[in-house]
Design brief:
Layout: E1 5-10, H1 17-29, E2 32-38, H2 49-59, E3 66-71, H3 75-81, E4 86-90, H4 94-110, E5 115-119, H5 130-138, H6 149-179
Parallel strand pairs: 1-2, 1-4, 2-3, 4-5
């Protein structure tokens, strides 16, 4: 019997409960699931690849058939390297569908044997994105129900450091303006 290995690619900056929902549900469907963190030089991530990997490894430690890896370049090339037969993608809304359909069709053009499997998140995560989590955290809102506790802690640490840095920079700027 053929074993089905799937990759779940993304930037995961930061990983959310929505990501974890898809990982958990995907782990029940596929024999092997690789959470593949994309090293994308065009994005300016809040967390390093190493930090994201550590968080995801902690979040997925209870799943025997889930591993975490990193990659750069084309998803189809990575899938071939790890011998995956499918790509798992989450779709929250129509706007996601349009983008994901375009990507799936291009991936099929580049690698016809690689399938894309779309999953909808649980309803309670249908609005959730990493971008929104970062914005809420930066504006001081509660993110506790949006991300695992470890991720919330790491986000608060990052944001507290950024706020302290801004506070030390602002007096220096004011004193320069007064001298002018």
């Amino acid at each position: 019997m053929k074993r089905i290995k799937v990759i779940y690619p993304g930037t995961f900056d930061p990983p959310t409960n929505g990501h974890l929902d898809l990982i958990e549900r995907g782990s029940k469907i596929f024999d092997e699931l690789v959470v593949a963190i994309l090293r994308n030089p065009e994005k300016d991530p809040l967390f390093s690849v190493s930090d994201r990997r550590q968080m995801l490894e902690s979040m997925t430690a209870g799943f025997e058939n889930v591993t975490v890896d990193t990659f750069d370049g084309l998803t189809v090339d990575y899938a071939l390297r790890v011998e995956a037969t499918a790509v798992l993608r989450g779709i929250r809304a129509i706007s996601d569908y349009e983008y994901e359909l375009q990507m799936a069709l291009m991936n099929r053009k580049l690698q016809p044997t690689l399938e894309t499997v779309f999953m909808m998140p649980a309803e309670k995560y249908s609005y959730l994105s990493s971008r929104l989590v970062r914005e809420i955290a930066q504006l001081g809102g509660s993110i506790d129900c949006l991300v695992p506790a470890l991720v919330a802690q790491k986000l608060h640490e990052k944001i507290d450091v950024a706020h302290k840095f801004q506070e030390t920079e602002q007096p220096a700027r004011r004193s320069r303006k007064k001298k002018s």
